[in-house]
Amino acid sequence: MAKDLPHVVVLGAGFAGLTFCQKFRAPARVTVVDQQNHHLFQPLLYQVATAGLSATEIAVPIRSVLAKKKLTEVIMDQVTAIDLGAKRVTLTQQTLDYDYLVIAIGGVTHYFGHHEWARHALGLKTLDDALAIRQRILCSFERAETESDPAARRRLMTIVVIGGGPTGVELAGTCAELTRRVFKRDFRHIDPSQARVVLLEAGPRILPTYPPDLSQRAKEQLQELGVEVWTDAPARHIEAGRVHVDAVVLESENILWGGGIIAAPLTRRLGVKLARDGRIVTEPDLSIPGHPEAFAVGDVAEAMDARSGQPVPGVAPAAMQMGKHVAKLIAREIRSGPRPPHERPAFRYHDKGPMATIGRSRAVAWIYYKVKLSGFIAWLTWLLVHLVFLIGFRNKAVVLLEWLYAYVTFRRGSRIIYARDMEAGRADRATRQEAEVSVPPQKTTAP
Questions:
Q1: 152-209 per-position pLDDT tens digit
Q2: Can you tell me the distance from the alpha carbon of 240 to that of 291, in angstroms, rounded to the nearest whole number?
Q3: Are residues 201 and 334 in contact, defined by beta-carbon separation less than 8 angstroms?
Q4: Which of 375, 423, 374 is nearest to 214 (CA)?
Q5: Measured on CA atoms in the order 382, 355, 118, 92, is the torsion positive or negative?
Q6: Measured between alpha carbons, how far is 365 from 164 in angstroms, rounded to an integer?
Q7: What is the model's pTM?
Q8: Which of 93, 247, 283, 350 has the most neighbouring CB atoms within 10 Å?
């Protein structure tokens, strides 16, 4: 690489970071740093967690995506420190000096101050998380098949999902389909259709950011699948195999957490203004105040939409648009010279509206915040939108074929149990996260 060219360092190859690299076109060196060697399509993680898809169908190697970018280098490493004043990033094995910095390190599962719950309630943020959930559910039903104690069998066949947002709704719906439709032909001594799936939401309704009628329709579709939807039911305490909801104790070997995410702990060591959830508060152009050469994008950024004046949501389309915006901005400045943040174009988010899938032919969607859809039409819309966002033609083709197969046959092929020590590995990660994250609780109960 030409050492005399400007150096752009991109931290994270999620939707925001990878889109930046794909859209960036300027005479400059680009170094991408990520802890993993793959880009992950997170909206479909729940499909891996519930055995609908395999891990390789929603992940693609970062190097293969950026193979044609000759001035782009990919480093698989962990960021340990960022010195904004010195314009330097420290990794575990080296340091990188930069002219421009794009922070796209994403977030971690948010337990609302109860970091110890991570040991018992599995979050869904990474491939490891998804595989751990799949492992636990599959192993629980295998154990239930040979369990003679009725109480122990019920505990093994109970799934509790905490959090009534999109992640929780998707997990609860697909878990119900998995147990009642897929497992029912697989076992001889248990009846998987009698499995219990409970969705807990602390507020008065699930999908609280949706209109009340769509939230109600989502609840009805979940109930049609057999999901017990508990609203005004905050998790007060979680321990091994138990969730305490006020005076009620739910016993389950499968406790899943869908309560949201919080910015990566590294942001708390930057010395910049942060939102309550650890996100970096940005200027309108997405730069970090006081550091016009550094930008925060994706889940790590607390940005205001110049169009609506509202906070930009932490969703994949927003992250991709942020990455594209910063790519154009930096490329323009490399060619024509730097400009102060107030002279740069502000970020405008083109929001097409939220949507959430619930199960086979079941979903809700609010298109452009005008058209409300539910049922099969909403599910088909959700399917097409997510296929468009999948990176790599092979992934799109494989996912489409897998879904068609599952839709027609009610079978899911990714039900292999392996890596028996995966739970121990995940427990170690949960312990590390508990030690790293030190954000004061925002409220006394979970979502």
A1: 999 999 999 999 999 999 999 999 999 988 888 889 999 999 999 999 999 999 999 9
A2: 45
A3: no
A4: 374
A5: positive
A6: 16
A7: 0.88
A8: 283
How far apart are alpha carbons 437 and 22 in whole angstroms? 32
Query: What's the number of CA atoms in the CB half-sphere (13 Å) around residue 319?
Result: 25
Collapsing DSSP to helix, strand or coil, 296 comes out as strand
| Beta strand residue intervals within 5-103, DSSP E | 7-11, 29-34, 38-40, 59-61, 72-76, 79-83, 88-91, 95-97, 100-103
- The length of the chain is 447
Which tokens sit at 302? 């607390």
Tell me the one-letter amino acid at 45. Answer: L
Predicted confidence at residue 101, as pLDDT, reads: 98
DSSP for 335-375, written as a single string: HH----GGGSPPP-------EEEEETTEEEEEETTTEEEET
d(CA 177, CA 52): 10
E strand spans, 119-270:
158-162, 196-200, 227-230, 237-239, 242-245, 248-251, 254-257, 261-263
| H or E, element range at 294 | strand 291-296
Specify whether the CB–CB gap between 39 and 65 falls below 8 A: yes
Q: Which of 317, 228, 254 is nearest to 124 (CA)?
A: 254
CA–CA separation, 269 and 438 (whole Å):
11
Give the SS3 label for residue 33.
Answer: strand
| Distance of alpha carbon 64 from alpha carbon 200, whole angstroms | 40
